[in-house]
Amino acid sequence: MFEGPVQRLIDELARLPGVGRKSAQRLTFHLLNTEEVDARRLAQAIVDLREQVRLCRRCFNVTAEEECAICRDLRRDTTVLCVVERAQDIVVVERTQEFRGRYHVLGGHLSPIDGIGPDQLKLAELERRIPTEGIKELIIATNPTLEGDTTAMWIARKVKDLGVTVTRLASGLPVGGDLDYADEITLGRALKGRMEIPTGQ
Ligand SMILES: [Zn+2]
User: Fold this and answer.
1) Residue 197's pLDDT is what?
2) How much is the pTM?
3) By Cβ atoms counted within 10 A, which residue in 52, 92, 143, 167 is the most buried?
């Protein structure tokens, strides 16, 4: 439709989630008409994202440092871990202001049908953290979906002999969706009302 760089940017933007061809076109012409310095800042932010961001060596949150800001924060309770599927879920839990411990990002959920088993997630790393960091409680905040529940149960069984309490967010969360479908009040309530996962021992 258009030629050269104009069409190229439209094509690239249209590949992003939630951006249709019309929006891609509108954004492209907006950038064409904007101040050059603003367009360059956007381009640089994308380059920096890919060059500087890595995973926290402790919890696998995204960070530009060795350890993320939450792990470096000395005021956090180091004996409680909130286990989430994705780094974005940390923001959701933080918004509730009900949690003062640290996190562990699994990198997804167990899903045999998609070929995602325990080895594809940061589960061995989680297990190692329990004795080395003296973890007393794991709050499993995987998504309220079948896969999220399966993952929570798998973790509870796996760590049951390590002397750690494993809890799951209380019900009341919208079932079948992502954690971030819940508003902070609902999620805060689910955190407060968390219940121990029975492992049948
Ligand atoms: Zn971290």
Assistant:
1) 86
2) 0.83
3) 143
CA 85 – ligand 1 centroid, Å: 14
Taking the alpha carbons at both ends of the chain, their separation in whole angstroms is 65
Structure tokens at 135: 């973890």
pLDDT tens for 48-60 read: 999 999 999 999 9
Alpha carbon of 76 to ligand 1 centroid (Å): 11
Distance 103 CA to ligand 1 centre (A): 7
| Token digits of residue 117 | 């088993």
Please classify residue 150 by burial: count the beta carbons closer than 10 Å to its beta carbon, then call 0-12 exposed, 13-18 middle and 19+ buried: middle
Q: Residue 174 has what DSSP assignment?
A: P
Task: List Cβ neighbours of 29 (8 Å cut-off, separation of 6 or more).
Answer: none
pLDDT digits (tens, 9 = 90+) for 21-33: 999 999 999 999 9
Smallest Cα–Cα separation from 180: which of 120, 101, 95, 116? 95
Whether residue 178 has pLDDT greater than 80: no
- Torsion angle, alpha carbons of 91, 96, 101, 102, to 10: -10
